[in-house]
Amino acid sequence: MKKIIALLTGGTTGEWVVSVKSAATIGQNLDADKFEVYKIMLTQQGWFYEPADSVKIEVDRNDFSLTIQGRKIKFDGVFIAIHGSPGEDGKLQGYFDMLGLPYTTCDAMTSAITMNKGYTKAIVQDIDQLNVARSAQIFKSSPYDIAQLKRDLKLPYFVKPNNGGSSIGMSKVNHADDLQAAIDKAFNEDSQILIEEFISGREFTVGVVKLDGKITVLPATEVETAKEFFDFEAKYTPGVATETTPAKLRPETRDRVAKIAEAVYMKLNCKGVVRIDFILSGDEADFYFIEINTIPGQTATSFIPQQVAAMGMKLNDFYTKLVRETIG
């Protein structure tokens, strides 16, 4: 019997553009012999299934079902491909938990916590051989002392929305006089922001996934960009960043990274595939945790498909194992 899967895409943030591309990759690589897939678009206007040959069909949110030509379709599980809210912040996961519907991502609690960069760092910071940059968290609704921030933290700073993704609203501050403008920019995206000391080093990202009951760390990717940092343009404009998969690392560094990445996955009680961004300072020295992405991009050029290929696995097999592991 084929599993009936809802492939959920769209969302209510600027990241919906990436989400649609991710869903296209996933849809093309979900094995049609094993799964009956219905792509569902979630927007501010509603939740719809859009068959190629007819008008949009609205999802019944009481039980997350579709009625097509009098036939009621209930799903065995949901492949969530929504970056940002409400797919990555725990809202949809809570809804599906209430309906008893399994899904491919981390649970509601982990999704909600990991959307908040400051809270995540507080949880992982005692993991062996993992370092976090010194930082301060400030809130739009509470007063903050900009002079104190400048005294507490060393330049340059990274200023970023605490719950954002895709580097939207993020700035690198090289001069203390520019801090207020960077804070204002980040507050346009979020009501709480993180100001971090800049860590100098090589930037990497690594996928971690549980397949066949075992946590697997994918080959890491090194990200190099001529820009000040890996911002939205560098992420999504071809040629702006150089990505090397697998990253050129000494075998002992590779083993250490895999061990730390697995520990992060376990400590945060992750499920499905996640991606951890980190920096190695000096000559492959200290591991600095940057952030975790619990619904990483799956576009044709995204890191996870690159890393799956570097591992010698077909995306078709990867998604089959992911669905079997998370949905059953």
From TrEMBL:
Co-factor note (free text): Binds 2 magnesium or manganese ions per subunit.
Pathway(s): Cell wall biogenesis; peptidoglycan biosynthesis
Cross-referenced PROSITE patterns: ATP_GRASP (PS50975), DALA_DALA_LIGASE_1 (PS00843), DALA_DALA_LIGASE_2 (PS00844)
Key word Membrane present: no
Domain of life where this protein originates: Bacteria
Protein's name in the database: D-alanine--D-alanine ligase
GO biological process assignments: cell wall organization; peptidoglycan biosynthetic process; regulation of cell shape
Enzyme class: ligase
Requisite cofactors: Mn(2+); Mg(2+)
